[in-house]
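[audit] Reproducing an earlier prediction to check determinism. Same input, same settings, fresh worker. If the tokens differ from the archived copy the diff job will pick it up downstream; this log only records the rerun itself.
[audit] input (138 residues):
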Amino acid sequence: PLPPQAPPPSGPRGFNSLRQDEVGPVGMEEEEPMGAPPASRCHPIAPPPPRRLTERDLMQIAQRFGREWQEVGIMCLGLEKSRLEQIREDHPHSLVLQSFEMLREWSRRHKAEATAPRLCACLRPASVDPGVFDLLQD
């Protein structure tokens, strides 16, 4: 059997000796500044996800495109000429509706990635109205 241990001293010294055995010297804990959350609970705040474009957004952008909408569709948005021809035939009297349908097609293809920053990046190489980029920044 193990030899018996002496009981701890009584009074405040006895309490401090117990605390030392359990957690180290009393009063030596590292303190965090008042009001600051513990480091283990600090998490960087994630930025909000990029804004998805609504049909209203797409219409406002389409209103700023001109006759070059098909070039934008092919060169910047990666759409096929045959699909753009179909859009033109579906809306023969309105360049705005043609442009709008082209943007909706792009949006459908990219689903959750059809965001303002992504469209802005796609349109950068094009000679589009600078107001388009203003709309995409809002």
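[audit] rerun output stored. Observation attached for the diff report: The chain has a mean pLDDT of 81.
[audit] end
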